[in-house]
Amino acid sequence: MNEVQLILAEKRTSLAVMRTGIAVLALPLSVLSVLIATSRYYDILRVIHLLVLLGAVNLGLMALGAYLIVRAMVRMKHHDRRIHEIKLKHRAIGRLID
Prior knowledge:
Blueprint: H1 2-37, H2 48-89, H3 91-96
Helix pairs in contact: 1-2
């Protein structure tokens, strides 16, 4: 039973990592929407070097967010398999776990 509790705690950690990945993935979209909304207040050709740098940072954040989400999903699938194995191995515990 303690092993199942440990696996469920690890699964909760994976869910927290996924939530963080979603937040990191949403940040560049927010920054881009602000830039688009305020684009009439600046000349794009004068700040192109800043926009390129910001675009590179946004791509990095999007890649990090996608990595965190995919990694969390893979880990949760692994945890689900481990719980299923325990349920099959110990029938008494299997009846307690949905």
